[in-house]
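Troubleshooting log. The previous structure file for this entry was overwritten by mistake, so regenerating from the original sequence record. Sequence copied from the archived sheet and checked twice against the printout by T.R.
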Amino acid sequence: MASVITAPTYDPITTASALADKYVASRRDMLAAQTKQAAAAERGLSELGATISSFQTSLAALTGTGKTLYAQSVTFSDSAIGSGTASADAPAGTYAFFVKQIATPSQVAFAGLTNDTAATGELSISMGASEAFKVNLAAADSDVDGFVSPRELAAAINAAPMNLGKITASVITTGTTSELVLSSKSTGEDTEISINTAGMDAATSLAKANEPGNVRTLSMAQDAIVHIGAESGTPIKQASNTFQNVDGLTITFNKAQATGTAPVTITAGTNNAATTANVQAFITAYNTLKTGLSKLIYPGNPTSGTAAGAFAADSGVRALHDRLVSLLRPAGGASLASFGIIASKDGTLELRADRLTAQLALTPNGLDKLIGSTSAAGASGIANELNTYLKSWNDVSSGQIGKRKAATEELQSTLGTREALIDKQYDVAYQRYLAQFTQLQSIQSVMNQNVSLFDALFGNDD
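Regenerated output below.
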């Protein structure tokens, strides 16, 4: 019997695929690691930006224009008469006023309106003794049907270029006719509304509605009159119901008092509860920022299996974290700790309310001077330092986060190009191996046929 030649059997497709995978494996692994790192950086930058933005929003709400952490309260002896607010430097005290009348807006109704034939001309509307604006009646027919309806007239008044929201026109339907109601936005004697129809067709329903007997005053325009002290005190007259005649106080009256009644008393003083809430809000906002940054730079814990943060090895983000801590400790002067704002072991802040209240009793404006403001006109203190530094990271046009995102996007684009190149290298290797093992398979088949032939010719069948 002839010897049998045996050789490994190859599947060209499977073998070529396996060898091509092995050929590019190291490059694919490196690319996968870089892609994963770039994606993590992108997510981390988005998280960092959101964390900083949230703090900046909270900081602006607490220390922006007209905002103070130290709160004063204004209390009315009769809360139905009005309400008020006090600035941080408002002197504590009690004041008395008698509210003779409150300021009211003008509101006038013109009865008997119907659809008028569209015509040229102007309607003049005045407030007080002066013309406020004119309405071009030629443009009032919005649906171009040849008539100006009461609603089209109202729309034309509201849209008049020089109206600017001074007067609002509305329509009330009353059977077969309508009433045009004009209401002033502002209060005071100078808002009294009147119309002049001399510049339009005298036969229109609006011209007739402006005649005596068809005009009704729904609300008389008047100034507010408030007497200092008792009803016999010095009167203050103005168009608005909001008074700022006492330093640091903003008082709004909304109800007049009956003749002969006692004046309303208004007491301004420290509001410890509101102040404590404001300070706690600042602390909470800072702690949220601090915790968010600490998470991003966390080095990880192999023992517990806790993964590292996205910027665990990033010196720039770590410097951001450390810089914020140092900005809470301005050189010289008072410290946050003197107002009961102290650092815990993990770097977050906590409040000792009793120490805050005691220190504010000694220096009412001290905390606001230390924390400062983020307002554009009077930026100062810790708040300004924090906000300015954070802008260097979060500014849309020039911030570090934007620059880093751009670099990360460019890197991801480059990695995408590399991935396409590796795919091509895989394809080339696969086709090469496929050709080689297909040829090998063919050779092996020929050899097996030859072995069978030799076996048939020279084999020993004994």
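The chain is about 40% helix and 20% strand. Archived copy saved in two places this time.
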